[in-house]
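Archive maintenance. Older records in this collection stored only the sequence; we are now back-filling the structure field for every entry so that each record is complete. The fields below show one back-filled record exactly as it appears after the update. Entries are processed alphabetically, and Apoptosis-inducing factor 3 is next in the queue.

ARCHIVE ENTRY
Title: Apoptosis-inducing factor 3
Organism field: Pomatostomus ruficeps
Length field: 600
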Amino acid sequence: VEVKIEVVIPEKERSKEEMSPNGKASPLIYKVNGTARHYHLEEHPIASNPYHNPKDVVEASVCHVKDLENGQMREVDLGCGKALLIKEGGEFHAVGHKCPHYGAPLVKGVLSKGRVRCPWHGACFNIGTGDIEDFPGLDSLPRFQVKIEKEKVYIRASKQALQTQRRTKMMAKCISLSNYNLSSTNVLIIGAGAAGLVCAETLRQEGFSDRIVMCTMDRHLPYDRPKLSKSMDSHPEQITLRPKEFFCTYDIEVLTEMQVAAVDVKNKIAVFKDGFKMEYNKLLIATGNTPKALSCKGKEMENVFNIRTPEDANRVVKLATSKNVVIVGASFLGMEVAAYLAERAHSVSLVELEEVPFKKFFGERVGRAVMKMFENNRVKFYMQTEVSELREQEGKLKEVVLKSGKVLRADVCVVGVGAVPATGFLKQSGINIDSKGFIVVNKMMQTNIPGVFAAGDAVTFPLALRNNKKVNVPHWQMAHMHGRIAALNMLAHGTEISTVPYLWTAMFGKSIRYVGHGEGFDDVVIQGDLDELKFVAFYTKSDEVVAVASMNYDPIVSKVAEVLAAGRTIRKRDVENLSPPVVLLSFRTGDMSWLTGKGS
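Back-filled structure field:
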């Protein structure tokens, strides 16, 4: 039996295209606040109908139907590109083979109940439509049609789709934008990070056609913030999440270098620092956090940095090259910056109050293994001490003095000692803020004020994984999902958040992947070899596994994410008696029956 695969637009989207002879949808009506509004659906160029240009179509042989068992995936080559062929439930599906986020090979990911999860960072895609269902990333996969004819396999696909390996969902456009009052908007989004951008895009994807305004203190359009510490010499245009043309096409207005100073929730007005006022109907607060500063003498001098912008990161790299760098704080940011600068700087010293890096997050044993990796790469640690003074010479940093008495030579100092939620401007607003400054929201990302939503690093929300305990999860993936849930509930969908936290960190070409919420863990079960940096760490609380981290054991973290997302519980006893060969063999054979989880 052969399988034919050809690119198609999902039925729902295709039907919208076919509503008018010119390839665009006829005007539809969407009700917002009881008012009927018209909108036109348009599609990003990379998602255009491949059949409009027959020369763009390629056809190639793939495999025999018996070559794939249920639950198996295979990367197939069409000569000018590849597709991911999947068999599940006796049916074949085909989608793009690379994750649109960072290009991970999805064939090495996890297939479960109609979706494939990326092995690197946990993004999920529906195998029937290609639509993105969990994050990070913004785009979906191209979907290809599968046909079976005479026990032989053929694939028919658009060359363009095979080359781009991504598809942007259809979106509405704003109607009569020129008629709007500049000081009034239907949706105002404060903050232009992942949460804000995904909120705006989701509104347009759902057919919302009224005005959307995003405002940000940054000078740039939304960008890939994790790269500020992982790829520090990236320029703003290299890490922009969407080009300027995208925002123009879909009428998403972005006000840069604009800071909101106060919010009047009674009159639905945001007051900006420069005095400008903007009325809104729905509000999303996604301001993220503000890095903590040092409290010692000399903290304001030149060459002392918090990494907040691409310019900060670029400047640090330039100043640190062949110079002496001191990093204060063995946080994710501090450790990633240390790893990035280790080969570029003359010396890198890291100062930390704890005994080992990542102790509270990854545990002492994993922290020591990571610390050893850094020491093998010329990073010097000064643990269980703090900075008492920064000394200057001719106005520039010269030395960092520690409370232990040690004096470190320093041309550059990077501060990564934590952050606080950027919510100070809301203190008199009436919006519920907890004792730590976090905005309190429910499962629909709603605050206590009707029409006001919040998302991202600045919120606490009920985490289904931990019995709806209110938690703060400052992860890039979670910010994406917050933005989507907020948008859906602005449109009264009644959607509750249920995603599983997923994060990663990259250091010296190696990644630690992490899933779950391990706050308050009381034990760590480690399988593998910490010295070889090839391990799986199961974080437990009582008898339950609450989080899992791994290094060089892909895709176990993505597999665990699927188990937890299904509402199942992994017990401590399930993983305590495993030997490393069992874990390793499971990835070679695909048999992960030991990690099924028990009904919770």
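Update note: The two ends are 42 Å apart (CA to CA). The first helix runs from residue 11 to 17.
Entry marked complete.
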